[in-house]
Amino acid sequence: MDIKFKLILNNINYSIILFNEELTIEFLNIAAQELTGYSDYFSYSNHLNANQFFHNNKYIIAKINEVMKTGEGFIDFDFEFYKNNRQNNKRSIIVEIAKINDDEKYYILISMKDITRFKEMDNIIKNEEKLQNFSRFIAEISHEIRNPLGGVKASASYLKKKIIEEHDSLPESLKELSQFTEIIVKEIDRINILIEDLLSLSKNHKINAEMLNVNKVINEIIEIETAVNSEKNIKFIKEFDPSLPEIFASEDALKQVFLNIIKNAIVAVQNKNKGFIRITTRIDAERNIPKFIKIIFSDNGVGISKKDFNKLFEPFFTTKEKGTGLGLAISQKIIFEHNGFINVKSVKNKGTDVIVYLPEGKNKKIAHPINHT
């Protein structure tokens, strides 16, 4: 291939892959090498073919053959590609296939554009909009629920007090009512706690922020959770970047988020023979304006099914027997308030990665990350 032509192709953002008539690779530009994990030299010298390159993906191979036969171009705006054939490295791709005729030869030209980050940001915005709509609804109905509950609790407490005071003069059938009034009071208290959690979703909190070291905050949580879960044979692995810059955040709020994520991971791995939870901190190399740090919580637990995945941040969605389904929704709101965002990657029966992104330094006013992809 002409050197000038190669130079041009190596300086565009689209991934370009050129196959010959035998569907072996003739050329991969730099963007394609970064996307796929294959080098141009490796692909060419090993005669890598389309089946190997696309990991025997029947759908895309059929489309390539169709373009070869008809000469008509093809485009797919949401093709799933797995880098290095790893299930936890799924990328969303716009893929275009074209047939190029050159005298008596022809080539198959494939261009691929990685839109994974755009899709992630789109999902984040949709989740944020859902949360805002839900928050408005909760704010409107919460007092309508609490007022009658207050009356019920006061009546139950008064009834319990009278039963205790007149215990000796009451018939046996009424003496037993005391324990039921106690249940009523406890259940109302539990409902009030739930309402408080719901209200925390509906309010925009004033963040009492300060410059803090994320490594230190996480380390304190790990020390406590290691002691509390000492009998569960769960291994906590810390991979902290010692040069991680400080961030401007509320320590209490971040502790609430990190603790919720870690507790979810503990539930996911607690029945595993060698369960582990790895917490990694590093600077996010992909986003430069503004700069973000990312905290990755990885576990080798039960993972999340495809059916449940899109509901993760919805209020009241839970797979736990005694869960309220508010933990991740509240966590997401807190991170939004810190001008950050959360991503989740999971493979059923293999594990989950929860990735928290937070702007480094004293970034008080930052546009939504969608503006910086």
TrEMBL record:
Residues covered by the Histidine kinase domain: 140-362
Top-level lineage group: Bacteria
Presence of the UniProt keyword Kinase in the record: yes
Record protein name field: histidine kinase
Any GO molecular function: phosphorelay sensor kinase activity
Keywords noted in UniProt: ATP-binding, Kinase, Nucleotide-binding, Phosphoprotein, Transferase, Two-component regulatory system
InterPro entries in the cross-refs: HATPase_C_sf, HATPase_dom, His_kinase_dom, HisK_dim/P_dom, HisK_dim/P_sf, PAS-like_dom_sf, Sig_transdc_His_kin-like_C
Reaction it catalyzes: ATP + protein L-histidine = ADP + protein N-phospho-L-histidine
Source species: Acididesulfobacter guangdongensis
Annotated EC: 2.7.13.3
